[in-house]
Amino acid sequence: MAAKLRPKLSLNSQPKKNRPEGEAAQFYDMYPNKCGRFMFGLYNLRPTSVCGLVRGATSRSGFSGTTVCQRRPRRTGRLDMELRPSGVRSVSHTTVDPAEVRRFHSLAGKWWDEQGEFGALHAMNDLRVPFVRDNLLNVHRAHHPGKPLAGLRILDVGCGGGLLTEPLGRLGASVLGVDPVEDSIATARLHSSHDPDLADHVAYRACTLEQLAAEGEQEEHGGAQFDAVVASEVVEHLADLEMFALSCQNVLKPGGSLFITTINKTNLSYALAIVAAEKLLRIVPNGTHDWEKFISPVELERLLESNGFSVQSVQGMLYNPLSGAWSWTNSTSINYALHAVKRSEEDGSSHPEDHAAHS
C-alpha cells in the first residue's frame, strides 16, 4: 500500500491550536519557519526559561550562555513594569552616564556604516523621520514645498553621528545636534560637510542637554528657543530622566513638540532587545543596552506630565531582523515612539492646535 503523502502546511495555515493569538501572532507570523518558532518561544518564556534557551543555543558555539543570563537584572519592586514614582535615575543631576560615553566613544567612527553596528538606526529613519515631520506639520501649518519644516528649529539630543539630524535638515528645518561624545560630533561634522545643502540647516555641538538649557537661561530671551526636541534611542542610555525632562521643557517654546523613541521595560524587550539582538543575532554591539534603564510608556508619560508636557500619541515599533526593516505596530511591548507637547505657560493649554492658532 502506497504511503499517504502528508500535506505541507504553510506558516499561515498552521492548525489554530498551535498558533498564538492576539499580540503574539505578529511575532510568530513575521519570522518564518524555525526563526518564527524561536521568536515566539522567547515571547512566551519566563526570564529563567529564556536563560535556559540561550544556554542551549550558545553552548554549541562555545559562547557562554551563563554569562548572558547572569546579568539579567532582578526585579525587587511590587510593580514589575514601572519605575518608582520618584525615578530611579534621579540621583546624579546630569543626563550623562560615563560608562555610556565610553561605550559610544569606541563606536564613534562607525555611525555611517549602514551594514555595521548602527544599521538598525539607519533603517529606523523610515519611521522616525515621517513621525517627526507629520506631527510637526499638524502643529505648524505653513506650506513650504520641498522643505516642509522650513522655519522650524529642532534640537536633536544624543545625535551621535547625525543619522537623524541630516534628514531633518534636508526637510528645511534648522537642526542643532548635541552629544557629549566629542568624537561622534566630529564624525557628524565631517559627514555633513560633504553635502553643501546642509551648511545652512545643520550644526553640531559637543555638549549635554542640561548645559544647553543652562546657557539658554542666561540669555535675555530665556532658554525656550526650539520648536521641537528629538531624543531617538537616547533615554535608555541616560543617567537622570528627571533632568532630561526638565531640560527639554526649558529649551522648548510653549507648544513645542518632544519626540522620543525608546524601549519598553518588559520581559519581551529583555528577550529580544538584549538576548536576541545583542547576544545571539549581534544586530547591535554586546552591552549596548541595560534593561534597568528601559522605561514603560506609562512611566514615561507620567514623568513628562509632571514636567509640563501633554502626551499626544504613543505608537509601537517592530524591527524585522530578516528584512532589516521597521514597521508600526499596535504593540508597545518592545520599541515605541512618543510625541508630547509642552503646555502653554499662559493658559495651561495642552493641545498642539492651540499653539498653532497663535503661531
Automatic annotation (TrEMBL):
Keywords: Magnesium, Membrane, Metal-binding, Methyltransferase, Mitochondrion, Mitochondrion inner membrane, S-adenosyl-L-methionine, Transferase, Ubiquinone biosynthesis. It catalyses: a 3,4-dihydroxy-5-(all-trans-polyprenyl)benzoate + S-adenosyl-L-methionine = a 4-hydroxy-3-methoxy-5-(all-trans-polyprenyl)benzoate + S-adenosyl-L-homocysteine + H(+); a 3-demethylubiquinone + S-adenosyl-L-methionine = a ubiquinone + S-adenosyl-L-homocysteine; a 3-demethylubiquinol + S-adenosyl-L-methionine = a ubiquinol + S-adenosyl-L-homocysteine + H(+). It is found in: Mitochondrion inner membrane. Its EC number is 2.1.1.64, 2.1.1.-, 2.1.1.114. It comes from the Eukaryota. The keyword Mitochondrion applies. Residues 1-22 are annotated as: Disordered. One of its GO terms (biological process) is methylation. Pathway: Cofactor biosynthesis; ubiquinone biosynthesis. It is a peripheral membrane protein. Belongs to the class I-like SAM-binding methyltransferase superfamily. UbiG/COQ3 family. Component of a multi-subunit COQ enzyme complex, composed of at least COQ3, COQ4, COQ5, COQ6, COQ7 and COQ9. O-methyltransferase required for two non-consecutive steps during ubiquinone biosynthesis. Catalyzes the 2 O-methylation of 3,4-dihydroxy-5-(all-trans-polyprenyl)benzoic acid into 4-hydroxy-3-methoxy-5-(all-trans-polyprenyl)benzoic acid. Also catalyzes the last step of ubiquinone biosynthesis by mediating methylation of 3-demethylubiquinone into ubiquinone. Also able to mediate the methylation of 3-demethylubiquinol into ubiquinol. PANTHER family: METHYLTRANSFERASE (PTHR43464), UBIQUINONE BIOSYNTHESIS O-METHYLTRANSFERASE, MITOCHONDRIAL (PTHR43464:SF19). This is Ubiquinone biosynthesis O-methyltransferase, mitochondrial. It comes from Menidia menidia. The gene is COQ3.
